[in-house]
Amino acid sequence: MTLKRPSNNQSTPRIRYSVAMPFFEKTVFEALLNRLETSNRIYIAYSGGIDSHVLLHVCASIPLLQKKMIAVHIHHGLQAVADAWPKHCRSVARQLGVNFVDIYVDARRVGRESPEEAARNARYDALKALLSQNDVLLVAQHREDQLETVLLQLFRGAGLQGLSGMPEVMTFGKGVLLRPFLNTSKQVIDQYARQHDLNFVEDPTNLSIDFDRNFLRNEIVPLLKQRWPSIDKTVSRSAIHCAESSELLSKLAGDQFKQVYRTKDATLSISALVKLDVAEQALVVRHWFASLGLKMPSRAFVLRVLSMVQSPLGDPQLPNQKHTIRRFRNHLFCVPQQTVALPEQGVKWPNRDEPLDLPDGTELKLAYDCSGIDQSVWLRSKIEVKFRSGGEKIALPNREGRHRLKNLYQEAGIPPWERPYIPLIYLDGCLAAVADRWIGSEFYCENKPGCIRLIQSRKNKNRKGHDECVLVD
């Protein structure tokens, strides 16, 4: 860790708003302050570096903000020298009279993530977890960071959304993320740090050009600025133009999306999609991914999805996002990739009054109605929950004969990839119910209070003290 030489004056200078921030775009920062006045807590992402230190120092000089502020240091644990940074950051926060928290994260790569992406994802996940409704996170990204972001997106072949760079304000977890320095030059931030003799850390990896952003920052951007000194300002302006155009396209896509989207299962209607031209279809598909909280895929991937509109051509998998695009009948589905192994021998229901957790993350629980499984039969039977192995049949009330589950699933329009995870409820070894969909006629009664109905739903994460699945011996 490299520290700038501390000031001889150990006390932290207190400066007025008008003196501390002459270099900020006043209208932008005043709008920011208006937003922060009504916020609950103000978190500041504080790495200990010069940019985040300036942001912390400026905000700490504003009494209105100081009482709400919490400086947050994320420790990635990727280099030994960083072990000393939390102590330094805590000391600076204490001098400024700001609350402080440090969080250790696991920033190791998963799958095909780059080291930069893994660290960023771990950092952002930790910060999102902190924010509650009406909380705000401030980050110190500035105009040259925006220049680097736009260039990286350009080199990756991004569209309008990518070329919009980083927004000044965005939803972040349950709160809001703000970038108050986004229209401020790096030169001005450095000048402020020198003026106030700030004591900051230098990350040695910032000099390594093995990372794409560092290569741009250390090798390419200085050359560009020799030829075009105001390139950070002009590219930032271009990013704003792209953002405005992207927003207009998003509104257009949103209107078309409503005509194509089926809310109950978050799918796209193929018959409605084919009425649009290819460019509009691509807009709708990207809007679909965004509505599902997924990252924008490449243009090539979007075109693969659109090819499924004409005919089924396999099931393309979203890279690194653990989802697969699948076609079933008249709809496109975005399906989470299941990695759950289903027990062949079934699952016991240890306490039938409590919900039963199932391997796929859902649960079975009981409800009482005037029709359903006879309660007296339910209470005296041995209950087992199994999963389809093939050839199962069930007799249904008011229908003749016994019906293969395969045929019932087809009639009900249940996608093939969902069928293996549908729980089958056996009473004393006989198939009595198929999840919450069908009840066998031998076990069905009506016009009788207290009949058993089964409900399958996603597990309640707040539920405590429930029984776990127990494999049948």
**Low-pLDDT stretches:** 1-25, 461-473
* Annotation field: number of helices: 16
Let me know the CATH homologous superfamily of the largest domain: HUPs
Could you report the average pLDDT, rounded to the nearest whole number? Answer: 83
Shape: elongated
Number of strands: 24
Query: Given the helix and strand composition, which structural class is it?
Result: alpha+beta
Largest sheet: 6 strands, mixed
Strand content: 15-25%
Radius of gyration: 29 Å
Distance between the termini: 58 Å
How many domains? The number is 3
Q: What is the CATH domain class of the largest domain? A: Alpha Beta
CATH topology term of the largest domain: Rossmann fold
Sequence of strands across the biggest β-sheet: 4-3-2-5-7-6
Layout of helices and strands, plus pairs?
Layout: E1 2-3, H1 17-20, H2 26-37, E2 42-45, H3 50-60, H4 63-66, E3 69-75, H5 85-96, E4 99-104, H6 115-130, E5 136-138, H7 143-155, H8 160-163, E6 169-172, E7 175-178, H9 186-195, E8 201-202, H10 212-227, H11 231-260, E9 261-262, E10 267-269, H12 270-273, H13 278-291, H14 299-310, E11 317-318, E12 323-328, E13 331-336, E14 347-348, E15 356-357, E16 362-373, H15 375-380, E17 383-386, E18 393-395, E19 402-404, H16 405-412, E20 424-427, E21 430-434, E22 438-439, E23 444-458, E24 470-471
Parallel strand pairs: 2-3, 2-5, 3-4, 5-7
Antiparallel strand pairs: 1-8, 6-7, 9-10, 10-13, 11-12, 12-13, 14-17, 14-24, 15-16, 16-23, 17-20, 18-19, 20-21, 21-22
Helix pairs in contact: 3-9, 7-10, 7-11, 11-13, 13-14
